Each structure stands twice: as structure tokens, then as C-alpha cells.
Amino acid sequence: MHAEPSSQQRSDRRASVIDGGLWSGMVGAGETYVPAFALALGLGDVAAGLVATLPMLAGALLQLATPWAVVRLGSYRRWVVGCAVLQATSFVPLVACAAFGRPSLVWIGFATVGYWGFGMATGPAWNAWVTSLVPAEIRARFFAHRTRVSQASLLAAVLTAGVLLEQGQEVGRELAVFAGLFSLAAAMRLLSASYLARQSEAPGLPALHAALGRRHEGPLFRHRGTRRLLGYLVTMMAFTYVAAPFFTPYMLGPLGLSYQRFMILTAAAFIARIGVLPFVGRLVERRGPRPVLLWGGWAVVPLPMLWLVSDSFPYLLCVQLLAGCAWAAVELATVLAIFESVEEAVRTRVLTVFNVLNALAVAGGSLLGAWIFSGTGVGGVTAFAALFVASSAGRLASLALLRGVRPVAAPHAEDVVLRTLAVRPSAGAVQRPILPTLEGPEEPAPPTRGA
Q1: What's the predicted TM-score (pTM) here?
Q2: Distance between terminal CA atoms of the chain?
Q3: Rounded to whole angstroms, how far apart are CA atoms 407 and 225?
Q4: Are residues 174 and 243 in the same domain?
Q5: Residue 170 clears pLDDT 80, i.e. is over it
Q6: 161 and 273 share a domain?
């Protein structure tokens, strides 16, 4: 028997669910369409590709300042709410560029760096804070519900934005629609921040977590197999992002897709990813993360080159469904293999390191892709084909690093919940684990106010 939650606890959980829905709506209506906005402004394929990836490095690096900032503020909530408000303001330059029709790569870069910087900076603090708000015995169920609400909100925002952009393009008001979408995204994030501010925080919580962390100092990745797994992840991600930033320019450029079809393909990969995750979780529990990661790793190898086979929309739809399923297997198996081999007390630090390494790989791969694309000197389909072939070759070579990865047990695979940070046409989404769902139910959470 579990004690009935207090009114404050019920309010905290309700506010958390609403925050998740609003935050996801912002992602679907705003960040998802920034590369398309760069193309609409005439900034070119390379710029459209890089604005979706390079700014992620700023977000990963700003996370490193989170522990210092939380200590200075004496509160997880103040840091998370402040970053959320600043993330909302990052849409202002995008709205201005769209409203006045003046293309400015500097302002778009400034906006996207702010978006990713302040957005990802909330991650470690939010994970630590939310652990205290949700009792261990109901975390899996609660976060699964919260994630379903968030996914529905994100999908609705992606679909609605695509329809509005299609209509705006038909009447010559495409940039005006972008201005409206970015304004809506900013408003949703501000409202999301207000629901974050309504959630309680136990007095002295940051100090308590810091004290717990100091008792577990030592190497974050003790096992050689885990380090090799990280090596595979970084290498594979770098080669993936040789091509991934250029999928949107390819779809809206040489393939000549409408916004509506672009939206359908993007949504298809996302739906496939979230739909297959429960099956992947059960498969990981039966077979372990390594074979599932290996199967997913092989499946993602040919994906870039499959885009070159045909421009038939039904065919492209099938490729997107395959991509969503393959990347779901890679991401969930990677998360479980890494996090199941490290101690609970350092998982927040591990997530920060994981994000930094991933962002470095994304930035490096994107720059390499831009260099290859520009270096071909021909443009068009030939330049895109060079990127896609190089990406597939690199993904294939990176599989060799999995040979040294030993099987790792993952007893709670089905309980792990992933939080969607961004929607990507080439992979369905960028997702990270909600750390409390990785923790065992026997570990009591720190006390909450009103408990």
C-alpha cells in the first residue's frame, strides 16, 4: 500500500505533465522547421544544414556550468526556470528575420545557439530535481504517461506547422507563417516555464545531491567495454552527421518535396521510432543491449544511400519507417548498455559527458559534411550523393568498434523512458533518457516538500 499523494504532490505531477506537453509543442512548431526557414530565406544548403547541428555543441558545453550555477542559486528550480525563459527569448531573432524578410545567418546562428544552450543546460538539473518529485515506485508509470502526452503534443505541432507552411507558400505568405510559428513556440516555452515554476523543491536539495555525489567520486566509465561503446557511439555519430544535416535541404531541394510531404516523412520516422520502442525494450531484456545495438547499427548503415534510389513518395515513406525503427534500436540499446554499467550516483554526470561527446561528434561530422559538400564543386544531386556515400561508409567502418563490447545486463529496459529533444527527418528524433526511470525502485528519493 502506498500513501495517498498530498495536494502539493498532485499539483507537481500535473504541472510536470503540462510542462512536457508545452515544451514538446515548442519543439514541433519551432526548432523542427529552423532548417526549412533558412532555406526559405535563401541562405543555402550548407547554412540550412549547419544551423540544425552546430548549435547543439553550445548546449552540451553549457551543461558543464550547471552544477556551479545551481550551487550559486541554491536551487534547481531557479536554474531550470531561468534557462527556460531565456530559451523562449531565443526565438525573437527568428521572428524578426521572418517578419522583416531579411536573411541574416548571424542572427539565426545567435538564436539557435541560445536555443540549444539554454535548452540543454536544463537537462542535468531537471533530471536531479524531478527525481525528488516522483516516488521511485511510480516513476516508470508516471514518466511513461508524461512522455505519451509530450509525444502527442510534438506530433500535433509538427503536423499543424507543416500544413500551415504549405498554405502560406501557396498564397505567398510563407515567411509570415514562419514568424507566427516561432512566436507560438516562444509563447509555449514561456508558458512551460510558468508550470516549471509552480513545482515544489525541497529545501537544501542541491546540497543534499552534492553530498551524495562526493561519496561516489571515481572514474565515470570503469569498464573497458563501456569506453569502447562510447568510442563506437562517437565515431558512428560523427559519420551519421556527415549526411544528416543535409536531409532537409535534399528533400526540399533536389527532391522538390512540398512542406506537406516533408512533414509527413518527418512524422513517419518519429511515429516509427516511438512505436517500436516498447518492442525494442522487450528484445533488449531478452537478448541484452549488445545484439540489439549490433542489429540497429547494421540497419542504419545503408540509410543515407537509400535516399538516392528513388524519389517515389511511397518509397521514401518506407525508408523513413525503417530509419525510425533502426535508430530506436541504436539509441535505446546504447543508453542501456552505458547507464546499466555505471553507478546511480554518477549517472547525471555520465549523461553530461555523454551529451558533450555526442555534441562534439555531431559538430565534427557536420563540418566534415559541409566541407565535402562544398568541395565537390558541382552542387545538386551529385554533391548530396557524395555526402550520403561517405556517411554510409563511415557508419560501416565504425561497427568494428563493437567487437570489444561485452554483453551488459539490462533488467529494467521496458521501464526506461526517453525524452525527445528534437525531431530529425533522417532519424525521427534526438532523444535522451529521463534518469529517474533508470533508477531501481529500492532507492528512496530525497524528501519532498509536503510529503
Answers
A1: 0.87
A2: 16
A3: 9
A4: no
A5: yes
A6: no
